[in-house]
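Support case: glutamic acid complex. Customer-provided input:
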Amino acid sequence: MTSLDTRPAQRIVVKVGTSVLTGGTPRLSRQRMLDVVAQAARQHAAGHEIILVSSGAVAAGRERLNFPHFGRSVPAKQMLAAVGQSRLMQVYGDLFDIFGITVAQVLLTRDDLNNRTRFLNARDTLLTLLDHHIIPIINENDTTATHEIRVGDNDNLSALVATLIEADLLVLLTDQPGLFTADPRQDKDAQLIPRVARIDETMWALAGDSVSGLGTGGMVTKIQAAQFASRGGVPTIIASGKEPDTLDRLVRGDGIGTRFDPANPTLENKKRWLLLEKPHGAVKVDAGAARMLLSGGASLLPVGITTIEREFERGAAISVLNSDGKEIAHGLPAMTATPYSS
Ligand code: GLU
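Agent response - structure generated as follows:
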């Protein structure tokens, strides 16, 4: 940080998608990766804590094996990730070396965050790395993640990580400058949306089912991620990974990209974990109970429950749904229950 710079240090989770790392080609682009690494290195040197969540393992594996055709086979994709992940890290390691920065590979699955002991462990490891000025580079553990324990895409994984370590900001770098009022590739009148105070139905409609290039995510997973991070108290910015100074500009406070405001600016640790845990059971509540939960977060009493949608055990996280079936909260039940409808 320069002596004139009085901005407080920030903890920033930066998610880099495959489309950014490949520049839209089938191969990892060292040039693009260097742009990302150089930005991260500048912010690191300025005293900010940077955590990268990087895709690209499957693309790197595919490139190494000369673009085999495996169709949609899951083990084949896991094999590609196993081949590619080490190559991806090798490139990152070499590029960060230029700036004298040490990196660490952290591979996670949803299971690592569902269990409270593992949650605390993952958190401690990441915070210890940051304390030692090491940049963690996180990816999903694709080789062991089965359908049940997968997060599935790195947009959502980065939101889980940002919530886990109480980041100040989540940046989703992608091949678009942000979220638009229409698909900018098809509609020349499409306008960039600079700020989203609340994610509502119109947001989901705007995201459509866009999917970018080789990666898993599109705008839908980015909005899911922004919504999750927002609930966890972390603002999210979707911005262009094509420019070499996006991160510098965001940290400087330039209003680029699309910014999603956090819904809960402060959330205690236990509640963050509750948010991260994948709920098993589910209850539907009446309008009064829904209002009460959304306004202040008091405890839910059995009288407010209209239906037990999925049974649950005492102490295992549940999903609380409003009368339309939309999830409005997570909770830890004080009792065990079997399906019931009032
Ligand atoms: N974990 C996958 C990879 O490294 C990417 C998942 C995603 O694109 O969101 O290739």
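The chain has two domains: 11-269, 279-341.

Case will auto-close in a few days if no follow-up is received.
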